[in-house]
Automatic annotation (TrEMBL):
Domain of life: Bacteria
Pfam families referenced in this protein's UniProt entry, alphabetically: DUF2214
Protein name (Swiss-Prot/TrEMBL): DUF2214 family protein
Stretches assigned to coiled coil: none
Keywords: Membrane, Transmembrane, Transmembrane helix
InterPro entries: DUF2214_membrane (IPR018706)
Species of origin: Alginatibacterium sediminis
Length: 153
């Protein structure tokens, strides 16, 4: 393994840890009575979340196509494909909370309290819960795919 591959793998793992931290921060900060400080923290957490997703996707593709091309056999694995599909749904699901939080920036600059309906609040919480569940499932699927599960002989 080259130093560049090791750095890439380290960035991949670091991004996963950062993503989990930002998700837990969003889960615990997102309550019914949000102060201005809480909204600012949610916006910071959403930024870390977005950056982590980009870093995970880019370092994962680099790992697969550049640093470890022998791993291309994983593309034949149904378990690996399931992992990729869950990751894509994960990314799409993360858009709703992010856009909800970013809409509050204008209100925050004007000094107005952030308003959200009960329905939106519930939807954002369920998206975050799904993301937390998927975050536990995706590494398990990656490990199963790496040892050969889902590859038909």
């Amino acid at each position: 393994m080259s130093i560049a591959a090791a750095i890439n793998e380290g960035l991949h793992v670091t991004a996963i840890v950062s993503l989990s931290g930002s998700l837990y921060a969003q889960f615990f900060l997102f309550g019914s009575g949000l102060s201005e400080t809480d909204v600012r923290r949610l916006l910071t957490s959403a930024s870390v979340h977005a950056f982590s997703l980009l870093l995970i996707a880019s370092s994962g593709m680099l790992r697969l196509y550049v640093f470890e091309p022998e791993m291309l056999r994983l593309l034949e694995s149904s378990v690996f494909m399931l992992k990729l599909q869950i990751f894509i749904v994960f990314v799409l699901c993360s858009l709703y909370p992010a856009f909800t939080f970013y809409r509050w920036r204008k209100e925050l600059k004007q000094g107005q309290p952030s308003m959200i309906s009960y329905r939106q609040h519930t939807a954002v919480l369920w998206c975050i819960r799904f993301e937390l569940a998927a975050l536990m499932l995706i590494p398990m699927l990656a490990a199963f795919a790496r040892v050969g599960f889902g590859i038909s002989s």
